[in-house]
Every structure is written in structure tokens, then in C-alpha cells.
From TrEMBL:
Transmembrane regions listed in the UniProt entry: 20-39, 45-62, 126-145, 157-178, 198-219, 240-262, 282-307, 339-358, 364-385, 406-427, 439-459
Cellular component, GO, one term: membrane
UniProt keyword annotation of Transport present: yes
Compartments reported by the entry: Membrane
GO molecular function: amino acid transmembrane transporter activity
Species name: Furfurilactobacillus siliginis
Topology in the lipid bilayer: Multi-pass membrane protein
Name of the protein in its database record: Gamma-aminobutyrate permease
Swiss-Prot/TrEMBL keywords: Amino-acid transport, Membrane, Transmembrane, Transmembrane helix, Transport
Annotated ranges, domain Amino acid permease/ SLC12A: 17-463
PANTHER family, sorted: AMINO ACID PERMEASE, GENERAL AMINO-ACID PERMEASE GAP1
């Protein structure tokens, strides 16, 4: 019993945690800041189409993940599913790539938190704020699973309330009730609007929208620590899709109505310049003088929330990799509170070292960030492929879809559409560099793709793995938080007793 307790994570995340975490995970600097550059690049129509399309793709991915997670809620989520339903080599590459992505993202977020704090305290060295942020995040994750869930829940509420207040004030500004005069809808067709820049501009906004929605897949990792995954995951997915689409589409619509796409402030929108967040611009347009400080506080919450989620996700992925035999076994142990402390410490050290390179070696830091850039999209492709194989294996082995606790929408259209859109987004990251044959820019942008292929090839060549035949896929349901051994990936045939 003691050993089992040492190896299993606690089931402490409630339905309200999962719903709000998945929702809040997709509301961050991508909406608060980068949405402005999306409107300036492709016009209001292009931004709306891109965010709507990526939102639909993410919905299909979440339903795919939900179907697998309710049937088999494993800690390690989609990396474990890649091992089980496709090929252990894919699971190995997916797991390490995703861990690396969030460990680097953790360092990026603590650096960004320092930039945000310097808005108020410009003379304090940035590294002090970063160290404080990292210490807070480590403590939250070290206390208990529930402390992580509660922290994310309340930070997500702050972000959601901000968006709701923004929508109300923005609507009042459009009709002239606030801000002095009505802006109406004229900016939607101003000059070349609603669509600007053609297909290349639209494709570039697909990339921005894709980064904005990254983090929704965390619901699959959190399934391993949910008290009731069979009910909480489907409920969270149903709620999150409509809320995300509603928040993003309405928010971008309000911004586009009030601020013309030609605004130089929108052209300069970036995560490092909080003062020209489109939310800040709209609040100022409505006559709210303290808009910049309020939005700075909200964006600080978003950055800390992202870092907190990154710490949780990478810790659980490393824990899962250890239990699958892909990492040192001591990373697969938990303490009495159900926290994989070795994995937490290992992730924190990598995040700290990465952050230190931002001080002593900016070029190294840039390459590390670039190497993790596309990993989230690669994870999405893995989810789509795993679900397609899972459902086909399920039917092939004589099961009926009615046996599943949750059914993914529009199979096989959903995973196939998500797969195609995911590839389009990855390829379209920086087409301009290919046109100009800028090899350095291509390397920086697409570095995570060859790194993924190297990991996949290494495991495949060393262990001689193959794609698992559909009739050999092991579909044995497993318990919440249970680890998975890749040696069990192929269903064992009964021995011949004759």
C-alpha cells in the first residue's frame, strides 16, 4: 500500500477546476495583446475567420482527447496514448518534446513577468522579479494538486471577468454611451477591410491564433488527477468550446469596431509592450484613465497563470515518462501529498537554467525558445493521430461506439480536419523565409520539427519499434493516475495450451 501511494498521483481536481483551467488556459497574452497584431495583419475579417477556424479545430482536438481520457484517464495523457495506440517511438518523442516545451515556456513566462513588473518598478533589476515569480510557482505546485487547481481557478476567474467587463465597456463605446461619440461599425469596412493582405496574411494570423489557443490540451493531462474524469471532462469540454469561441470572437469584433486595422498601436502589439494592448486602447477610448495599470495587473495574472500551468504540465509529463520507462525511475515517485517532487525539482532546475541563459547568453536563450516554438502544434497532431487510431482499433476489435462514456464529435472528420489544419499552421509559420531562402530564420522558426524527428528516430532505431496493428492495440481500461509501460503497448495473445 505504501509503495502504491508513493507511485500514484492524487485525484484532487474537481469539475469546476477543470472547466475554469481549460478556459483560463486559453485566455492570456494571445488575446490581451497579440490579437491587436492579428487585426492589423489580416484586417478584422481575416482575424475573425482565423480565430474561428482555429477555435473549431481546438474543439475537435478536445473532443478527441476527451474520448480517450474518459475511457482511459492516464497521467501523461496524449504522450501515453501515442505509445498505446500508435507507436512507442511516437510516445517517446511526444512526451520529451512536450516536457521540453513547457520547461522552456516556464522560463519565458518568468522573464515576461519581470517585464510586466517593470511597468510599475522600472529601476528594480528584472531578475529579482523573475526569481520571486519562480519561487511562488514552485511553492504552489509543491503544496498539493488542489493548491494548483485553486490557484488556477481564481486566476482564470480574473481573466474571464476582465474579458466580460471589456465586452460590456466596448459595446457601450461602439454605440457612444461611453467615450463621447459612437464608433459604430465603420472600422469593419475601413479602407481595405474587412480582409487585408490576402491568403498569406490570413495564414500568418492562423499561426497567431494557434499560439493563443495552446494550453487547452492540459485538460488531458489533468484528467489523471481528476476526481471524476468520466463526468468532469465531457462537461469541461462542452463549456469551454462555447466560452472560448464566444470570448475570442466577440473580443476581436469589439476591438475591430473601435480601433481601425491601420492603427500604429495595433501594428506594434507585442507581449513586451503592455501599454498598447488593444484592451488598454479600448478602455482608454472609453475614458478610463487607469486602463494601462489595470490591464498590466491582468496580464501579470495571465503570465503567472501560464507559468503555473507550464510547471504543472511539464512536471506531470516527466513523471509519466519515468513511469513509462522513458526517463530515470526516480522521476516517477511521489511524496505523501501525491506530488512528484523529483520531477518538479528537475523541471524547475531546467527552467531556472534556461532563464539564466537569457541574462548571460541571449543567443542561446533565443535558440532554446525557438526549439520549443512548434511543440504545442506537434502535440495537437499527436492527439489527432492517436484518437483516429484509438477509434479504429476500438471498432476493429469488436467494440461498439455506444460502449464509450464520451463520444468525440464528427469522427473521423474531426481528427482529420485537426490534422490537416495543424500541418497547415506548422508549415505556414514563416513562408516568407523560404521565399527569401533565409536559412537562419528557417532554422530558428522550425527547429522543433527536426528535434522531434531526431527523438522519434532515435527510439525507433534503438528499440526497433513499429506501428501497432489495430487488432493488437491494448484497449484494457486503466485507472486514474495509473502509469503505463510501453512494453504493454501490444496486446498479449493468450498462450497456446495444447
Amino acid at each position: 500500500m505504501a509503495e502504491n501511494e508513493n507511485r500514484t498521483v492524487r485525484r484532487e481536481l474537481k469539475t469546476r477546476h477543470l472547466s475554469m483551467i481549460a478556459l483560463g488556459g486559453s485566455i492570456g497574452t494571445g488575446l490581451f495583446v497579440a490579437s491587436g497584431s492579428a487585426i492589423s495583419s489580416a484586417g478584422p475579417g481575416g482575424a475573425l475567420v482565423a480565430y474561428a477556424a482555429i477555435g473549431i479545430m481546438v474543439y475537435f482536438l478536445m473532443t478527441s482527447l476527451g474520448e480517450m481520457a474518459t475511457y482511459m484517464p492516464l497521467t501523461g495523457s496524449f504522450a501515453a496514448y501515442s505509445t498505446k495506440f500508435v507507436d512507442p517511438a511516437l510516445g517517446f518523442a511526444m512526451g520529451w518534446n512536450y516536457w521540453f516545451n513547457w520547461a522552456i515556456t516556464l522560463a519565458v513566462d518568468v522573464s515576461t513577468a519581470a517585464l510586466v513588473m517593470q511597468f510599475w518598478l522600472p529601476h528594480v533589476p528584472a531578475w529579482i522579479f523573475s526569481m520571486i515569480a519562480l519561487a511562488i510557482i514552485f511553492t504552489i505546485n509543491a503544496l498539493s494538486v488542489r493548491s494548483f487547481g485553486e490557484t488556477e481557478y481564481w486566476m482564470s476567474i480574473i481573466k474571464v471577468v476582465t474579458v466580460l467587463v471589456f465586452l460590456v465597456i466596448g459595446t457601450l463605446t461602439i454605440f457612444g454611451i461611453m467615450g463621447g461619440h459612437a464608433t459604430g461599425f465603420s472600422n469593419l469596412t475601413y479602407k481595405k477591410a474587412p480582409f487585408v493582405g490576402g491568403v498569406p496574411a490570413l495564414l500568418s494570423v492562423f499561426v497567431v491564433a494557434g499560439f493563443s489557443f495552446q494550453g487547452t490540451e492540459l485538460i488531458g493531462i489533468e484528467a489523471g488527477e481528476s476526481e471524476t474524469p468520466e463526468t468532469s471532462i465531457p462537461k469541461a469540454i462542452r463549456q469551454v468550446f462555447w466560452r472560448i469561441l464566444l470570448f475570442y470572437i466577440l473580443a476581436i469584433f469589439v476591438i475591430a469596431c473601435i480601433i481601425p486595422y491601420t492603427s500604429h498601436d495595433l501594428l506594434g502589439s507585442s507581449a513586451s509592450d503592455i501599454a498598447i494592448s488593444p484592451f488598454t486602447l479600448v478602455f482608454r477610448r472609453a475614458g478610463l484613465a487607469a486602463a494601462a495599470s489595470v490591464m498590466n495587473a491582468v496580464i501579470l495574472t495571465s503570465v503567472i497563470s501560464s507559468a503555473n500551468s507550464g510547471m504543472y504540465a511539464s512536471t506531470r509529463m516527466l513523471y509519466s515518462l519515468a513511469n513509462e520507462g522513458y526517463a530515470a525511475s526516480f522521476f516517477g515517485k511521489t511524496n505523501k501529498r501525491g506530488i512528484p517532487m523529483a520531477s518538479l525539482l528537475g523541471t524547475t532546475i531546467v527552467g531556472l537554467l534556461t532563464f539564466m541563459t537569457s541574462i548571460f547568453g541571449p543567443k542561446i536563450y533565443m535558440y532554446l525558445v525557438a526549439a520549443s516554438g512548434l511543440t504545442g502544434f506537434i502535440a495537437w497532431l499527436g492527439i489527432a493521430i492517436s484518437h483516429y487510431r484509438f477509434r479504429r482499433a476500438f471498432i476493429k476489435q469488436g467494440h461498439k461506439v455506444s460502449e464509450l462514456r464520451y463520444h468525440a464529435a464528427w469522427f473521423p472528420v474531426g481528427p482529420i480536419l485537426a490534422l490537416v489544419l495543424g500541418i497547415v499552421v506548422i508549415v505556414g509559420q514563416d513562408l516568407k523565409s523560404f521565399a527569401q531562402l533565409d536559412l537562419q530564420a528557417i532554422l530558428v522558426t522550425y527547429m522543433s520539427v527536426p528535434l522531434f524527428l531526431i527523438l522519434w528516430s532515435y527510439y525507433k532505431i534503438r528499440h526497433h519499434t513499429h506501428m501497432i496493428p489495430l487488432d493488437k492495440v491494448d484497449l484494457t481500461p486503466r485507472t486514474v493516475g495509473e502509469s503505463y509501460d510501453p512494453a504493454d503497448a501490444v496486446k498479449q495473445e493468450p498462450e497456446n495450451t495444447k
